[in-house]
Design a protein that fits this description.
Elements (H helix, E strand, L loop, with lengths): L1 H27 L2 E4 L6 E5 L5 E4 L2 E3 L6 E5 L7 E7 L5 E7 L7 E4 L14 H14 L21 E3 L4 E4 L2 E3 L5 E4 L5 E3 L4 E10 L3 E7 L4 E8 L1 E2 L6 E2 L4 E4 L10 E8 L2 E3 L1 H5 L15
Parallel strand pairs: 8-10
Antiparallel strand pairs: 1-2, 2-5, 3-4, 3-6, 6-7, 9-12, 10-11, 12-20, 13-19, 14-15, 14-18, 15-16, 16-20, 17-19, 20-21
Bound molecules: zinc ion.
Length: about 290
Amino acid sequence: MINRRCSLSLSWLIAFFAAWWTAGAAAELLELEGQWQQGGIIFGKVTPGYELQLDGRRVRTTDGGEFVFGLGADAPRQVTLAVRDATGRAETRTYEVKQRKYNEQRVNGVEQKHVTPPPELLARIERENALTRKARLLDDERRDFLQDFIWPLSGPITGVYGSRRVFNGVPRSPHYGLDIAAPTGTRVVAPAAGLITLAEPDLFYSGGTLILDHGHGLSSTFIHLSKILVAVGDRVEQGQAIAEVGATGRVTGPHLDWRMNWFDVRLDPALLMEGKPMPAKSPRISKE
Ligand SMILES: [Zn+2]
């Protein structure tokens, strides 16, 4: 009788310690790297087979446990990551998100139709918004996001993420891209490998528009292009020429506007590229 009780409590103890160890292991094997601020992109690794949620939203992991997620322009002061093992045991951790102050940029001299579009264009604009929204929702297991990103071109930064925009004196939605000035025809290369999910030569606001998906919901969007050198469904490698800079859509001059998304969440490419030098000079492919 005593023996039996002993062995029962011993196995209970072993089970308890196994559970404690497992919970401890989940904590040990959560590695995170990135900028904990609005617009930031966070890369990480968790014990393979564990599930991850950011504020209740599933975060896809690779077989090796790698993942990426992003913090939007209005991300709250705190976010919560839940790590769940196969038995459903979850551990949650809270992270502080630095809140940013965005500047205001006044842009004058854009065509008036790009400030207050005539009613007959609204259906077109809505259709085009739906196209880009849909392309950014692709959720697949490609691991291109794990590459070390490179600049798509070199040039002076003329517009930043998050600025409130006032066009010809009229306030409009904030700017969620990074503007890099370069002459029309300048080569744009893929900052990381990926799949082309949208290639449109003439959208109303963004002109020549390309979306390159890096897997796990991380995508790059390039707008105001004069020429697109790839097609939807193409697989491109890092450094491959994919487009040429232009001045199409709502612009006052030629530049590349590079946007990044984690699905519908808008991210700041400048944070990803912080500390990485631009290439010496990007060659021009075509003359204006
Ligand atoms: Zn821009």
